[in-house]
């Protein structure tokens, strides 16, 4: 619950340089990305102060969704900015600097930005036309295997498929009924579930490797657990399910729910030692991945494994606020959604009011709710130090080009590099 942000331009750059057709994958590091260049001003209404080229729609969608979840009514100008990013086709790109210009065949629209915007606008209400066009576009971009890639025509991946499932659920459509041929999104996810008797059994792979193998990926697993359960970014704690804590369930007739429970078991075991997930970016394998850990907390809570969230949630409360301060609005949103899923007060998250911090990165809310009276005073400070992105954009550009990785969605901005 990349979650999550869009990086279509990075993906296009990677393809052009490498001469490959690699499917875009969102990579994300916990180091800061640069602020917007002096020649580029941040649009009025947009959350965050960093260059929005690669994540404008993504971070805006998460920010608005998190505010709505905690009872904050976002500023009209913030909602209007997101609506204005939509193409006539219904799709969204990661960011359009000139939203008055018509989208054409060169506009890098993508499934992740579109599905995130659907979830946000559906929650806010009053945008049925825009949401309807976006959902129709998503349905038209479905692959033959029932899933979605980051961009139309790209190979299906667990993260993109899951965020689109979340969009369908947000508008009341049944994902199982959205089929291309005979295949539903749940079948696409099941095909990416690592068999129980293999290394990383129970987890999900982002995509099959070049030999068709499935390598466990914690980021893809957190996303696919929510997708398999028919959940979007905003999830409440599910009913306790002892089966998840007991054993991995196999079989050719594996249900979406059982596959999701298997994924939750994998996440529980991955978090057991340190209480956090580690980055799988080259050179940063020993570093904590705050965003992925937050997404895993949401996934575990939704799967009815609240006990398994206690240790990572405590770790996030102690360690994640400095990360979020540097990473920007999407990071605050991820933490708010993790708090919401576990019944934790996001206004007292390890002593920090996450809602106030998020509000301060963008235009003042219409209805700020309690604990936000000082938002305007903090706004300048927060806008000055946040980077608006959870992903360490420019560091990732180099990494992805060298490694041959595409760049795209994170249910929250997480690494899609296959990890053992």
From TrEMBL:
InterPro entries: Terpenoid_cyclase/PrenylTrfase. The keyword Coiled coil does not apply. It comes from Streptomyces acidicola. The chain crosses the membrane at residues 392-411. Residues 1-29 form the signal peptide. The lineage of its organism: Bacteria, Bacillati, Actinomycetota, Actinomycetes, Kitasatosporales. Residues 358-385 are annotated as: Disordered. Keywords: Membrane, Signal, Transmembrane, Transmembrane helix. This is Terpene cyclase/mutase family protein. It comes from the Bacteria. CDD domains: ISOPREN_C2_like (cd00688). Residues 376-385 have a biased composition (Basic and acidic residues). SUPFAM superfamilies: Terpenoid cyclases/Protein prenyltransferases.
């Amino acid at each position: 619950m990349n979650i999550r942000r869009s990086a279509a331009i990075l993906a296009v750059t990677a393809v052009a340089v490498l001469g490959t057709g690699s499917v875009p994958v969102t990579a994300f590091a916990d180091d800061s990305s640069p602020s917007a260049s002096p020649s580029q001003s941040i649009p009025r209404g947009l959350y965050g102060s960093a260059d929005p080229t690669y994540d404008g729609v993504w971070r805006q969608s998460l920010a608005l969704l998190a505010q709505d979840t905690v009872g904050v009514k976002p500023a009209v100008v913030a909602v209007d900015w997101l609506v204005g990013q939509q193409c006539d086709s219904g799709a969204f790109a990661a960011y359009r600097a000139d939203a008055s210009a018509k989208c054409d065949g060169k506009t890098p629209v993508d499934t992740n930005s579109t599905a995130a915007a659907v979830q946000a606008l559906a929650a806010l209400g009053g945008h049925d036309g825009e949401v309807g066009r976006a959902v129709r576009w998503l349905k038209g971009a479905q692959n033959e295997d029932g899933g979605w890639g980051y961009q139309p025509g790209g190979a299906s991946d667990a993260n993109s498929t899951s965020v689109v499932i979340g969009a369908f659920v947000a508008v009341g459509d049944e994902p199982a009924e959205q089929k291309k041929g005979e295949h539903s999104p749940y079948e696409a996810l099941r095909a990416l579930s690592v068999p129980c008797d293999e290394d990383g059994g129970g987890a999900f792979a982002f995509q099959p490797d070049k030999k068709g193998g499935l390598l466990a990926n914690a980021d893809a697993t957190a996303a696919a657990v929510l997708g398999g359960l028919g959940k979007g970014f905003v999830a409440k704690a599910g009913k306790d399910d002892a089966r998840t804590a007991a054993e991995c369930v196999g079989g050719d007739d594996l249900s979406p729910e059982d596959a999701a429970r298997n994924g939750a078991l994998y996440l529980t075991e991955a978090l057991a030692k340190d209480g956090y997930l580690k980055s799988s970016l080259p050179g940063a394998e020993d570093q904590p991945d705050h965003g992925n850990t937050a997404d895993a907390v949401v996934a575990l809570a939704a799967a009815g494994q609240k006990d398994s969230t206690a240790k990572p949630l405590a770790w996030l409360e102690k360690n994640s606020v400095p990360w979020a301060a540097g990473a920007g609005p999407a990071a605050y949103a991820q933490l708010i959604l993790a708090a919401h899923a576990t019944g934790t007060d996001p206004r007292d998250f390890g002593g920090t009011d996450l809602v106030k911090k998020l509000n301060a990165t963008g235009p003042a809310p219409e209805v700020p709710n309690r604990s936000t009276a000082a938002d305007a005073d903090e706004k300048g400070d927060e806008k000055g130090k946040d980077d608006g992105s959870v992903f360490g954009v420019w560091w990732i550009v180099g990494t992805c080009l060298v490694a041959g990785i595409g760049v795209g969605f994170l249910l929250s901005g997480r690494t899609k590099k296959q990890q053992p």
